[in-house]
Structure to design on (190 residues):
């Protein structure tokens, strides 16, 4: 199978909602302030609800409840907002077939992202960029699961997680890293 054929088999390429795309771009713009982000977040009810819920959680709760997205955004701060928006966009964009543990996939992605953020801080690099890279490090796996389910099922059954990429390359001619790189190119992410 060729990489292009995998993308052709996907009936629709997973998409990040327009509001989330705009927000991701705004986070990369050093001129963006928290008020601008809050107004953009208000355009997506799902993201807005998640922001309010997190701001009112035990971890972030202040003396009073946050009842507006703007107040919640101020309470959470730029980095937490960025993480929440990215996570919401990524987890909502993908579906996997039967036999693939999507919760375990996202749990692993968040663990890797957290480690990437920690390492970046220790080495003086941008921790949020590192977090994003960690979140997306194996995103190609989801596309293989949804675009080539017959191969994915066989690979899932026959191999351990450590040998996954090698087995994908043997069976498909490419592995999840190449698929992920192609998705990033098609989504025009930096």
């Amino acid at each position: 199978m060729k990489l292009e054929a995998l993308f052709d088999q996907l009936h629709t390429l997973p998409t990040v909602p327009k509001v989330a795309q705009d927000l991701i771009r705004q986070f990369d713009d050093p001129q963006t302030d928290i008020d601008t982000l809050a107004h953009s977040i208000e355009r997506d009810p799902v993201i807005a609800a998640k922001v309010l819920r997190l701001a009112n959680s035990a971890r972030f709760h202040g003396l009073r409840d946050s009842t507006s997205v703007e107040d919640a955004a101020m309470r959470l701060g730029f980095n937490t907002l960025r993480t929440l928006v990215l996570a919401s966009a990524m987890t909502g964009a993908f579906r996997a077939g039967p036999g693939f543990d999507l919760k375990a996939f996202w749990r692993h992605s968040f663990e890797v992202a957290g480690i990437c953020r920690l390492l970046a801080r220790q080495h003086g690099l941008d921790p949020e960029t590192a977090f994003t890279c960690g979140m997306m490090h194996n995103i190609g796996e989801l596309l293989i699961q949804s675009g080539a389910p017959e191969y994915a099922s066989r690979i899932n059954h026959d191999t351990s997680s450590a040998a996954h990429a090698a087995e994908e390359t043997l069976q498909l001619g490419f592995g999840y890293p190449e698929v992920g790189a192609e998705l990033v190119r098609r989504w025009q992410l930096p």
